[in-house]
Each structure stands twice: as C-alpha cells, then as structure tokens.
Amino acid sequence: MGCFSRIVAGPMVGLALAFTALQPADAAEGVSVFSDPSKIAAIGGSITEIVYALGEEKHLVARDSTSRYPKAVLDLPDVGYMRALSPEGVLSVNPTGILALQGSGPKEAVDVLKKTSIPFIEVPEHYSREGILEKVRIIGKALGADAKAEVLARDLDDRLTSAEKQTASIKERKRVLFVLSVQGGKILAAGSETAADGMVRLAGGVNAVEGFSGYKQMSDEAIITARPDVILMMSNAGPPVSDDELFGNPSVASTPAGAARKLIRIDGAYLLGFGPRTADAIHDLAVSLYGGQVTD
Amino acid sequence: MVDQSIAGPVKAMSVSEGDRSGRARIVIVLLCLGLAAAVFLSLTSGASDASAVNVIRDWLSGAVPFDAALSARDSLIVYDIRLPRIILGILVGAALAVSGAVMQGLFRNPLADPGLIGVSAGSSLGAVAIIVLGATILAPVTALFGTLALPMAAFFGGLATTLVLYQVATRRGQTSVATMLLAGIALAALAMALTGILIFMADDRQLRDLTFWSLGSLGGATWAKIASVGPIIILALAAMPFLARGLNALALGEATAGHLGIPVQRLKYTAIIGVSAAVGASVAVSGGIGFVGIVVPHLLRLLIGPDNRYLLPASALLGASLLLLADAVARTIVAPAELPIGIVTAVAGAPFFLWILLRKRGVVDL
C-alpha cells in the first residue's frame, strides 16, 4: 500500500514541475485597427450584423454558426460554433483580420490564431445600450470606418434611448420569466447577467427570477414564487415547445402568466444579439408586454 | 520478472499457436504501414490548402519561399496545428486501446474498460472542477498553470480516484478484483455526483464548454500539452508489454497464474497504475473519447487471437491509426468548422464493429 503511494507520488511531483515549466508565452495584444481590412472573419452574430449595418460586408470572407442575419451572410463559409473554433479552419479562409466577440474560443484555438501575423481583435460584450455602442465603435475603428461607425452609433443611441423611454411612464411593471428550454418538464430560466435579463429591463419589464446569475433549472416552487406575468421564449431555437406543453406544467399553470396563458416568442438572435436590431427588439418586446401603454 | 517455465503451459493455450503467431506478426507489420499512411494522410489533409509536402521541402532545401507570408502561415499550420495533433492522436489512441486490452485481461471480462476503475470519472471531475471553479475558488490553480490547469486537474483526479480504489480493494497485500469492480462503480457514481453538483453551479457559458469537452477533441493540441502528458503516456505504454505474459497466464485464473510463478499482485498494481496514468493523461488532454478501448482490442482478438504478447503492440498501433483517421475526418468533413472526434469514432466505429461481430458470431473469445 505504502509502496503504491510512493510509486504514484514521484510522477505526480514531476508532472507538476513539468506543468509549471511549460507556460506558453502570451501573444502580443493591443491591435485595434486592421492594417489590411480586405478579408475579415467575423465570429459572433452581433459582430456580423454590425459589419453589415456599417455597409462594410464586402470585407467579410467567413462567419461563425451564430451569424445568421442578414440572410446574405449564409453564403459565407461557416467556421463553426464561436466557442468551438478550429484554428486551421479559420486560417483556411486566408483572413487578413479576425473580429471575435468576447467569449470566442476555445482558448487554445485563440492562442494559435494569435501566434499568426493575423491581427485578432476581441470585441467586449455588455448587455446594455452602452455595450452596443461600444461594439459599433470598436468594429468601425478596426475596419477603418470610424466616421460611418460614429453615424451608426449616434443613430442607435437615439433609437435605443427612445425605445427605453417608451415604457418610462408605466407604473405597473410586468414580471417576465425568460425560459430558455423546457427539458422533460424542467424549466431552464434566465437569471441576472444574461442577455435575456438585459432585454427584459430595457423593455421596461422586471426579471421574475431573483437570486441567481446565468441560466439555471428552476424548481416548481421557485417558479410559483417568481409569479411571472408573462413567459418569454425564443422562437426557432431547437424543437419548438408547444404552448400546451409549457402551460401543462402545473407550477407554470399556477402563475399569473399561466392563468392568462401569456407567452411571447421572439427570434433568439433578434432578441438576444445586442446589435443593430436591438432597438426594434426592445420596441417589439415592450409592445408585447404593455400593448397600447407604450408611448412612441 | 516472469519465470521462464511458464512459457510452455501458456503457449498451450491456443490451438494453432504457430499459425497464429505467424499471422500476428504479419498483421503487426501491416499495422505499422497503416500507421505510417495515417500519419502522412493527417499531415497533408486539413481545412486549409496548406501543403505539408511544400513546407517540409522548403525546410529541407532551405530555399527562400516564393511567398514568405503564405509559407509562414503554412508552416504554422503544419508545425503548430497538424503535427501536435498527430502526435497527440498517436499517444491518446495507443493509450486508450492498450489500456482497454490490459483491463480486459486483468478483469477477465470482455466488457472491461478503463472507465471501470473510476479513472475516467475521476478525470472528468477534475476537468469540470477547473471549468466551473477556475475563475473563483480555484483561481490560484489556474493562475499558476494557465491553460495546463485543466489537463493537470483531470490527470490528478483520475489518479486520485484509482489510488483510493486500490486502497479499498487491497487487504493484506492482496487486491481483490471483484471488490475493485464494485468499488469502482461506487467511486464513479460519487465522482459523477460531485460533477453533477459542479454542473448545477455552472453558468451557461461553462455548460457549453463542458458539453464540448465531454464530446472529446484533439483540437487543443499544443506542444506544451504534449510535453506535459506525453512522458506519462509513453512511460505507461512502455511498461505494458512487460505485462503480456502475466496477463496470458491470468486468463487461466489467479490461482493457476500464481502456481505458474507469475507475481499476480505485482501484475495487478502495475497494470492499474499504468492504465490510470495513461488514461488519466489522455482524458486530460483530449476530453472524453469513448469506444477505442473496447473496440480495438476486440477487433484484433478476432484477427490475431488472444495472445497479449501480440495483442498489446497491435492495439497500440491500431488505436493510434484509427484515432488519426477519425481526427482527419473530424477536421475536414465540415471544414472550415470541425466535428468533435468522439462523434466520429462512434459513428464510424460502431456499425463496423457490429458487422464484424455478426460475421464472427459465437467465436468471440478473450
């Protein structure tokens, strides 16, 4: 027994030393403008949308699988899901620059891409009006289209501000439960620090979920306690959940939303993208929530 | 060391020994050629048009390349993306296949695989812990080891599980294989439950990382990773051939093997340390790649018989080749995107294996 422990302990120590000795050097960072913006790979749906909104789509040579709008983008080669990139796949489209939304990965793939001479710009993501404007300005600067980006950012700023104001005078705030999926009767709901939470608040609603961040399964009692007035779901995300299946869940049925069978479905990329279409999405969501009370 | 006097009785195990060993040698030579072909195919195929042949020719001739930028890109693709993946694929494929063969011999059970001794579940627990807690509780670990924190945690998780298991199953210097199987099931269940708690704590981004990790991929291959887990796998693989005679004798039962002069206890713990090190290191760098450990040894038993002296090296060769081919498919079939390799091994391997079993119905032996 003791002999076994010793046999194992040796390699363990050796391995730990090997691991510490082999730290990869960090790639040089800090590029904010592409020296040659002629062939850009866009990773992340909102990044691609912003490039189109800037009228700079002629530069795009590749997209990721989350980039599905506008329709024309589907003709570009797809380098895979933004969190499971293949470095050789990205390099195979011979990009002169890579624009990637924060959270693109895996880390090893990004490290290899940063080893090349191809500039790699990571665009931060914040679920707020400022977050969208920041994305537009960073992408505009990277593509050498600062003036266009400023025009677009101002325009989006106006539209987002007025979209937020539409619901400012409403006293009775709707409690919204965003349901990501219903798997085997289990409700996966959005807590704080999610795109869904940001949108609900921008549209003048209150996230019915309190006490956790990210997406979590909610217990039946937690759903009843959350008392949502409205359920919000994505359309076109996987197999559709029928209204009957959702409201057939006893805990959902016992909430105000269940009693009134109040369910809103909005396209996922449109609702959660935090890009150029977000102002319209806020308006649509606000109208779905408050109907005639929305002031233009 | 193994007493030479056992060679006779062990040899008498198979009916047509001379016939089989001759055939086995031929198969091993063919497998060597197959591996060389698989390496060449992997080196020259990929999502990009980078030509490995050109890069190597440039390098050999020392000539000034025609287009410096393109050639730099190509040499990065060949040396920093394809080559590490090939080496990792060979190591992991060989480790999984040989570990499967050794486990099946040790437990005298055709269904045994490294997962049985809890090493896979333990490795997964270590990996998931880093994915979920790497930014909070385990931040010092990730700060210290960077991208190598995950493989390291997975390796130690697997090894620690095996260590506990071994202590549980060992009484007065004798390890009970049956106790080990049952304890392995219990420990795997415990490790999975702890993994479940972590999954519950994970946010949506971490969950997506977990999903991709559990499907397995050689995509994260870097020289640093190979340098860290390569020696472990190579050492473990190098120890395995010394087990061949002992495992052959063990097929006759523990008592018989003991009477033949096989140090059964030492055989057991060498096998277990070797397997847990090899599999722990493999799971650590490539995630969950299933199927190789069960299918490769069985396929080879049907071809060359159950003699471990040929089965172990042949498993290493075939496991490495199959994983390389699966990875080549994974890298090119949906280019420029990439499939997780676990999907490829199962989709390609399972029907083929079923077909072999149907053809050879009733003659599957160990």
Protein architecture, described:
Chain A is α/β, with parallel strands linked by helices and 296 residues long. Chain A is built from 13 helices and ten strands. In chain A, strands 5, 6, 7, 8, 9 and 10 form a six-stranded mixed beta sheet that branches. Chain B is an all-alpha fold and 366 residues long. Chain B is built from 16 helices and two strands. In chain B, strands 1-2 form a two-stranded antiparallel ribbon. The interface between A and B is large, with 53 and 57 residues.
What key phrases describe this protein's structure?
heterodimer; A: 296 residues; alpha/beta; Rossmann fold; six-stranded mixed beta sheet; 13 helices; 10 strands; B: 366 residues; mainly alpha; ABC transporter involved in vitamin B12 uptake, BtuC; two-stranded antiparallel ribbon; 2 strands; disordered N terminus; membrane (chain B); transport (chain B)
Spatial separation of the terminal alpha carbons of chain A? 77 Å
CATH topology assignment of chain B: ABC transporter involved in vitamin B12 uptake, BtuC
Fraction in beta strands of chain A: 15-25%
Annotated CATH homologous superfamily of chain B: ABC transporter involved in vitamin B12 uptake, BtuC
Number of strands of chain B: 2
- Unreliable spans of chain A are 1-28
For the biggest sheet of chain B, the summary is: 2 strands, antiparallel
User: Quick one: overall form of chain A?
Assistant: globular
Strand order of the largest sheet of chain B: 1-2
Biggest sheet architecture of chain A:
6 strands, mixed
CATH architecture of chain B: Orthogonal Bundle
Give the low-pLDDT segments of chain B.
Answer: 1-15
N-to-C series of helices and strands of chain A: HEHEHEHEHHEEHEEHEHHHEHH
Instruction: Give the largest chain-chain interface (CB within 8 Å).
Output: A-B, 53 and 57 residues
Fraction of helical residues of chain A: 40-55%
CATH superfamily of the largest domain in chain A: Nitrogenase molybdenum iron protein domain
Which structural class should the secondary elements of chain A be placed in?
A: alpha/beta
Mean pLDDT of chain B: 84
